[in-house]
Write a structure and sequence with these properties.
79 residues; 78% helix
Length: 79
Amino acid sequence: MKKDHQPLEIESQMDPLTASIIDTASALKSQQLAGEMNVRLLDKALDAQAQQALGLLSTLPAGGAPSGGGVGQLLDIVA
């Protein structure tokens, strides 16, 4: 009885393909993690900028707005 070697041939042909798929998935996961880290860093930077802006607004004189609303009203809107 002759053994059929076709499944082994297909399996050996798929090995480079499987390796390529695994490499691609790994690279995509690395990019995803890097993207998530960038988003976290940008979020922290924006939060720091907002805190700095609120701090600067709080130093302005209360009667400086021409509408009479003052900086306090602006801070309430921003916050």
